[in-house]
Structure formats: structure tokens, C-alpha cells
Automatic annotation (TrEMBL):
GO terms for cellular component: catalytic step 2 spliceosome; precatalytic spliceosome; Prp19 complex. Belongs to the SPF27 family. Its main location: nucleus. The keyword Coiled coil applies. Residues 96-123 form a coiled coil. It comes from the Eukaryota. It is found in: Nucleus. This is Breast carcinoma amplified sequence 2, related, related. The keyword Ribosomal protein does not apply. One of its GO terms (biological process) is RNA splicing. The lineage of its organism: Eukaryota, Sar, Alveolata, Apicomplexa, Conoidasida. Keywords: Coiled coil, mRNA processing, mRNA splicing, Nucleus, Spliceosome.
């Protein structure tokens, strides 16, 4: 349900007592008081208009100056944030490039270790065969120590490891 509008007629007009109230002093006193209030209201409105006419331009200029200063502060803050963001991005990029170099170096080192391991395992093949041959001869002669029996070398496991690393 809409709110009813305010009745502003008592601030803008007055009515003169008529008919049976035309001779009533109280009704006329009320009308005079109402007219005085209307005149006071009009005088106040006139003063407000004079003040607005005298000070509106300066007030508007202050408001525009405040808006301009606020805009300048916001633009400066935005510029500062953008510079901070760019600085962070540059720092991250440098760190990524450095990490990339380190990763490449580690990858090369790992590949070098794999190659070295493959070379060692390849060299172990003939040596292992020779050790096994010597152990077999020692067994035949009965001179193989007990600790050597337990120390069997798994050539196939070493060769498999060499194949996976190369």
C-alpha cells in the first residue's frame, strides 16, 4: 500500500474565514497566525535562495576539487599496485629461468651418472664371469672359503639394471 502524500497546502496557501466563521475572532486570529507562518516560511526560503546564489558556485567548486583529488589518489594507487604486480611477475620469471637452468644441470648430472653406471656394469660383466670361473675351479679343488659361497653375484640383475639405465 503506497504511503499517502504529505499535505503541503498549509505551507503554500491560506483560507479566509467565511460564512458563520466570518465574524469569529478566534478563526481570524488563527488565519493571521497562519499568514505570519507563511510569510516566515517565504522569508526563510528567500534567504536560502540568496545563500545558494552566493555560495553555490564555491561549494560546487570544492566538491569538484574533492572529486578530482579522490580520482588522483585512486589513479596513483592503481599505478602503484600495477607496478608492484609487474615487479612480482618479473621476480617470478627470473626465479623460473634460474630454476630451469638448475633443472637442466641436474638432468645432465643424472644422465651422466646413468652413463657412468652403465659403463661400470658393462665392465663388471667380464670380471664377474672371471670371478665365477675362479670360484668354480676353487670348488673343484675344494679350496673355496665358506664366506665366498654366500657371496654370489647376480650377473643377470646387474645386466638388467644396466639395460634400464642406458
Amino acid at each position: 500500500e503506497p504511503i499517502p502524500e504529505l499535505d503541503l497546502s498549509k505551507y503554500t496557501s491560506f483560507s479566509v474565514p467565511s460564512g458563520s466563521k466570518a465574524g469569529d475572532v478566534k478563526a481570524w486570529e488563527k488565519t493571521v497566525i497562519n499568514c505570519q507562518q507563511l510569510l516566515q516560511h517565504a522569508a526563510t526560503a528567500h534567504i536560502n535562495l540568496e545563500l545558494m546564489n552566493a555560495h553555490a558556485a564555491a561549494s560546487w567548486q570544492r566538491h569538484l576539487t574533492n572529486l578530482t583529488q579522490t580520482k588522483d589518489r585512486l589513479v596513483a594507487a592503481t599505478k602503484r599496485r600495477t607496478e608492484e604486480e609487474n615487479s612480482i611477475c618479473k621476480t617470478r620469471k627470473v626465479q623460473q629461468v634460474e630454476a630451469s637452468g638448475t633443472l637442466k644441470q641436474l638432468e645432465q648430472t643424472a644422465q651422466q651418472y646413468k652413463n657412468n653406471n652403465a659403463s661400470i656394469i658393462e665392465a663388471l660383466g667380464p670380471l664377474t664371469a672371471e670371478v665365477m670361473e675362479l670360484k668354480a675351479k676353487c670348488r673343484i679343488r675344494g679350496i673355496l672359503p665358506e664366506y665366498a659361497e654366500e657371496d654370489e653375484f647376480d650377473l643377470e640383475a646387474w645386466q638388467e639394471a644396466a639395460n634400464t639405465t642406458s
